[in-house]
């Protein structure tokens, strides 16, 4: 009975009984979708929120929303872009409702940049080079956190998720020119701080 | 393409503008995700979707767009030529690119490790089962939802009308009530004032003030005073 209730095929069958024609979507094989896209959605949310538990919770919410709204997936965009759009909307909802909680303490599962720095790819590099790389990563990490939420979203979609600019425009529902403008500004901020650090290192 | 002079450069040589550097950086940025899935991954997507056979810059190429594309390619070539000739711009671009690559790699590796290590992270099959359960369970009966909204709307309308009606009645009733309220105290106060005056007039004059109340008797009293020491009455002629 439980198996029947939880089987997506049976859900489609019940839809057919109600007179609604079941539409085949890529989400019928939800487990494959979760296996393939969960790391990416989690990574995007974790880079944005910097809170593990919250990122995991919103990742699961993303797949729940995708499953419940799967009938509206027409295939105009890729699954990845569609999921990323849902994740971004959830992220914005969360940010909006928590923006004014000044008294909110730092989450116990907040990400520390030193933990992230241990995952830097440095095969065969010297200790000094590792230190410099860690310092640069910390600088970029802090700079990205200080960007406006819109700039941060777009920057991460491009430089962590590797999305093309038209795909970012689809995910964020912004014009391509606006996406580019946000990227220029974000890169301008990063460039300024990075060049400042480079100058200090040379001195 | 027009290169711009760098204000920090003593020789005032031309360098890439910020937009040119960003455009070049964006064209170099990796498209494929580090986990192997492409940004435009359609491996699980509906198979009836057409797969673009051209590169990212030629997807929307139309015959009338060719000059623009060629101009874009010319600009890109000019930027690359400049980067080959200008070590300053090339150094900055390489440095920025390296930092961004490190940031991406670290964020990706860290997220993957966290996802594996999180105790609360369910397996994909558990996640799927949980989603099916949540999706199958109606959060609220569908019939109750419109009823709730209808009741809420009625309450809102009732509250609005209820708050406006007394104000309206009060506003309408206020002039006559105010006029009566003003007239009644005036009449009462007049009568009270008259009574008070009557009482004052009818009040017996205190003994000390009696000489003032009857000036004629006062004259007589002035004519005959009593010597208090002897107790004899002295009459002045």
Report on this structure.
The complex is a heterodimer of chains A (203) and B (237). By secondary structure, chain A is an all-alpha fold. Chain A has 2 domains: 1-111, RNA polymerase sigma factor, region 2, helix turn helix motif (Rna Polymerase Sigma Factor, Chain: A); 112-203, Winged helix-like DNA-binding domain superfamily/Winged helix DNA-binding domain (Arc Repressor Mutant, subunit A, Orthogonal Bundle). Chain A is 70% helix and 0% strand. Chain A is built from 10 helices and no strands. Chain A has helices at residues 2-6, 8-17, 30-49, 52-68, 79-98, 113-117, 127-146, 149-159, 165-172, 176-202. The model of chain A is unreliable at 1-6 (pLDDT under 50). By secondary structure, chain B is mainly alpha-helical. Among the domains of chain B are: 1-30 and 64-116, no CATH class; 148-181. Helices cover 62% and strands 4% of the residues of chain B. Chains A and B meet through α3, α4, α5, α6 and α7 of A and α1, α3 and α4 of B.
Which features characterize this protein?
heterodimer, A: 203 residues, mainly alpha, Rna Polymerase Sigma Factor, Chain: A, Arc Repressor Mutant, subunit A, globular, disordered N terminus, B: 237 residues, two-stranded antiparallel sheet, two-stranded antiparallel ribbon, 7 helices, elongated
Concise summary:
Chain A is mostly helical and 203 residues long.
Explain the layout of strands and helices:
The complex is a heterodimer of chains A (203) and B (237).
Chain A: H1 2-6, H2 8-17, H3 30-49, H4 52-68, H5 79-98, H6 113-117, H7 127-146, H8 149-159, H9 165-172, H10 176-202
Chain B: E1 4-5, E2 14-15, H1 18-28, H2 66-85, H3 87-117, H4 124-136, H5 144-202, H6 210-213, H7 215-223, E3 224-226, E4 233-235
Antiparallel strand pairs in B: 1-2, 3-4
Helix pairs in contact in B: 2-3
């Amino acid at each position: 009975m439980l198996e029947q209730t939880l089987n997506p095929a049976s859900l489609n069958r019940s839809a057919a009984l109600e007179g609604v024609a079941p539409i085949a979507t890529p989400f019928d094989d939800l487990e494959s979708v979760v296996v393939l896209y969960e790391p990416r959605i989690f990574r995007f949310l974790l880079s944005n929120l910097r809170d593990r538990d919250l990122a995991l919770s919103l990742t699961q919410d993303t797949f729940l929303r995708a499953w419940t709204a799967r009938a509206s997936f027409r295939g105009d965009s890729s699954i990845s872009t569609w999921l990323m759009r849902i994740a971004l909307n959830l992220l914005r909802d969360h940010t909006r409702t928590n923006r004014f909680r000044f008294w909110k303490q730092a989450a116990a599962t907040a990400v520390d940049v030193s933990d992230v720095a241990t995952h830097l790819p440095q095969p065969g590099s010297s200790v000094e080079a590792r230190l410099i790389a860690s310092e640069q990563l910390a600088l970029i990490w802090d700079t990205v956190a200080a960007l406006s939420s819109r700039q941060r979203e777009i920057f991460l979609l491009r430089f962590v998720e590797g999305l093309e600019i038209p795909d970012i425009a689809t995910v964020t529902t912004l014009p391509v020119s606006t996406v580019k403008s946000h990227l220029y500004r974000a890169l301008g901020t990063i460039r300024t701080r990075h060049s400042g650090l480079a100058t200090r290192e040379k001195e | 393409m027009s290169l711009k002079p760098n204000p920090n450069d003593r020789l005032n040589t031309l360098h890439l503008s910020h937009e040119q550097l960003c455009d070049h950086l964006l064209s170099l940025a990796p498209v494929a995700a580090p986990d192997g899935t492409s940004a435009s991954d359609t491996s699980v997507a509906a198979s009836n979707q057409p797969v673009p056979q051209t590169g990212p810059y030629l997807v929307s190429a139309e015959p009338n767009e060719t000059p623009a594309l060629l101009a874009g390619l010319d600009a890109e070539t000019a930027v690359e030529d400049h980067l080959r000739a200008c070590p300053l711009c090339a150094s900055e671009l390489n440095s920025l690119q390296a930092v961004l690559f490190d940031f991406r790699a670290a964020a990706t590796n860290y997220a993957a490790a966290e996802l594996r290590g999180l105790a609360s992270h369910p397996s994909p099959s558990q996640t799927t089962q949980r989603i099916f359960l949540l999706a199958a369970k109606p959060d609220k009966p569908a019939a109750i939802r419109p009823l709730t909204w209808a009741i809420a709307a009625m309450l809102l309308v009732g509250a609005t009308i209820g708050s406006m009606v007394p104000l309206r009645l009060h506003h309408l009733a206020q002039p006559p009530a105010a006029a009566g309220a003003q007239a009644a105290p005036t009449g009462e106060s007049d009568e009270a004032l008259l009574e008070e005056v009557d009482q004052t007039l009818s009040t017996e004059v205190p003994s000390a003030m009696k000489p003032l109340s009857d000036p004629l008797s006062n004259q007589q009293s002035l004519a005959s005073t009593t010597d208090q020491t002897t107790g004899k009455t002295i009459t002045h002629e």
